[in-house]
Write a structure and sequence with these properties.
Elements (H helix, E strand, L loop, with lengths): L7 E6 L15 H15 L4 E6 L2 H4 L3 H4 L4 H25 L4 E5 L8 E2 L2 H9 L3 E5 L9 H12 L3 E6 L4 E2 L11 E2 L1 E2 L1 H6 L7 H10 L3 E5 L5 H6 L6 E3 L1
Parallel strand pairs: 1-2, 1-6, 2-5, 3-4, 3-5, 6-10, 9-11
Antiparallel strand pairs: 7-8, 10-11
C-alpha cells in the first residue's frame, strides 16, 4: 500500500448531504453508511482523519420554529443538530469497524467527550476517527469556521470540505449554464471575489496558518477517498 500524501486531515461534511433526498431533510441511512465506509477505506491508507459535520439536514426540519427567535438561541439549536449527525456517523463508523470518538464543544457527558485538543490528537495518533460536534460551542460561528479552527488546532495538513457542489465556480452554475469550475484558487482570490461556497472567516483562518482547503462533492461514491488520498478533485484553495 502506498504512503498517503497527507498525514492528518479534517474532513468537513455538509449536513445537507446526509438528508433524505425525497424530503430534503432528515438522515438518509444509506448515505451515512456509504460515507462511513469511504472514511474507513481512507483511514486504511494510513491517514489520520477528524470530521466536522454540519447540521443543515436536521435544522432545516425545525427552521420554521426558529424564525423570529433570538439569533444566539437559533445557533445553539443548530449546534445540537450537529450532535445528532455526529452520533449517526459514529454509529455507522463503528459498524464499519472503525474506532470512533465524538468530542463536543458543549458539555454533554452522557453522549460525547468534551472537546480537549490534546486528547483529540492522541485519539488520531491511535488511529481513531474523531468527530467534532456542537461547532465551536459559541453562537455566530459556522461549522466551516469550526472545521478551520479544528484543522489548525490539531495540525492538519489540509481541510477537506465535502458538500453537494463539485468545486468553486466563477458564477452560479444553477443560474448560468456557462459557469466554469475553478481548479486552483488563492486564499486572497477567494476572499476578494466574495465567493460564497465557504465562510470567509474559515478561509482567512486557513490562510493565516497555511492550511490548504479542498472543496469537492461528496455525493459521488469514491470522492472522499480520492480527496483524502490527495488526488486532484474539486477546487484547491491555497
Amino acid at each position: 500500500m502506498s504512503e498517503p500524501s497527507m498525514r492528518r486531515v479534517v474532513l468537513k461534511l455538509s449536513g445537507e448531504a446526509f438528508a433524505d433526498p425525497d424530503v430534503g431533510y432528515g438522515i438518509d441511512p444509506e448515505t451515512v453508511t456509504r460515507v462511513a465506509h469511504e472514511i474507513a477505506e481512507a483511514l486504511a491508507t494510513g491517514v489520520e482523519i477528524a470530521v466536522v459535520v454540519g447540521g443543515g439536514n436536521i435544522f432545516r426540519g425545525v427552521s420554521q420554529a426558529a424564525k423570529g427567535m433570538d439569533p444566539a438561541s437559533a445557533d445553539y439549536m443548530g449546534m445540537l443538530a450537529t450532535v445528532i449527525n455526529a452520533l449517526a456517523l459514529r454509529d455507522a463508523l463503528e459498524k464499519a469497524g472503525v474506532a470512533t470518538r465524538v468530542q463536543s464543544a458543549i458539555t454533554m457527558q452522557e453522549l460525547a467527550e468534551p472537546y480537549i485538543r490534546l486528547r483529540a490528537i492522541r485519539h488520531l495518533e491511535k488511529g481513531r476517527v474523531v468527530i467534532f460536534a456542537a461547532g465551536t460551542g459559541n453562537p455566530f460561528f459556522t461549522t466551516d469556521t469550526t472545521a478551520a479552527l479544528r484543522a489548525v488546532e490539531v495540525g492538519a495538513d489540509a481541510l477537506l470540505k465535502a458538500s453537494k457542489v463539485d468545486g468553486i465556480y466563477d458564477s452560479d452554475p444553477k443560474a448560468n449554464s456557462d459557469a466554469n469550475r475553478i481548479e486552483d484558487l488563492s486564499y486572497m482570490d477567494f476572499i476578494s471575489r466574495e465567493l460564497r461556497v465557504m465562510d470567509t472567516t474559515a478561509v482567512t483562518m486557513c490562510k493565516e496558518h497555511g492550511v490548504p482547503i479542498v472543496v469537492f462533492e461528496m455525493i459521488t461514491p469514491g470522492n472522499i477517498v480520492k480527496a483524502v488520498s490527495g488526488e486532484t478533485i474539486g477546487t484547491v484553495i491555497h
